[in-house]
Amino acid sequence: MDLHTIETYLRPTALDQITTWQPGWAWLAGGTWMFSEPRPQTHTLVDLHGLGWSEFKITSDGLTIGATCIMSRLLQETYPASWTGIVALQQAVRELASFKVQNVATIAGNLCLAIPAGTFAPAMVALDAQYQIISLDGSARTVPAVQFQTGLRQTILQPGEVLRQIWVPAANLEWQVSYKRLCLASAGLALTIVVAAYHPATDRVRFGISGCVTVPRLIEFFSIPTSEQLTQALDRHLPLAEVINDAQGSAPYRRHLTQVLMQRSLQAVIH
């Protein structure tokens, strides 16, 4: 889609070339969502690609993903054999879109879009990823994935701030994982997404949940939970009043599906 309101295109090669942030400005990464709908309030695009932030680094400490790294990189690399958790991130790519989008859209962009159906957020939450956020003045802060999204298309990012890097510790990538997503049609928006991560040595279990709520949730157990404990945890962390209720599915239906997927994903990771 053409954005007829765009008047200015900027492609800085260093962050300090952008000294102020004005209303009507927007960061541009992959652009697959940016150019998918009218944006009458946006008149200036600031392209991140000139900054060279497309890193994808595999080290003994973990996985680092830069702000402009495209999704398909997750499917193309070779990982340490112990990194069983990488399957959750790869499945987030496959569940999201066609290969055409995967080769343009960025991982960070999907997270910053902050919609319930976003496929990466629950995987990052389950794996306890850390996000580095930087400001125009170069100052940086790091936050856990579970704190990043605050509402429907809302994040903790302040005007001019950008999600610079995503880091997933190697120890977390060694957990057993299961990624389950349910929607009304194969290409439809998710009714619920559940990503389970299990640490066999300690029996810890982490569930990243989205699709059924506007803010991804983390439900964590320090031993393998029973069905009753799953129900009790859902009552505490996913009250019906906070579950999405729309034409696709009622809140009780979405939460019921979430519990079913939690039970199935738990069985998948412990066997």
Automatic annotation (TrEMBL):
Record-linked Gene3D superfamilies: 3.30.465.10, CO dehydrogenase flavoprotein, C-terminal domain
A single MF term (Gene Ontology): FAD binding
Signal peptide: none
Residues annotated as domain FAD-binding PCMH-type: 1-173
Protein name: FAD binding domain-containing protein
Native organism: Thermocoleostomius sinensis A174
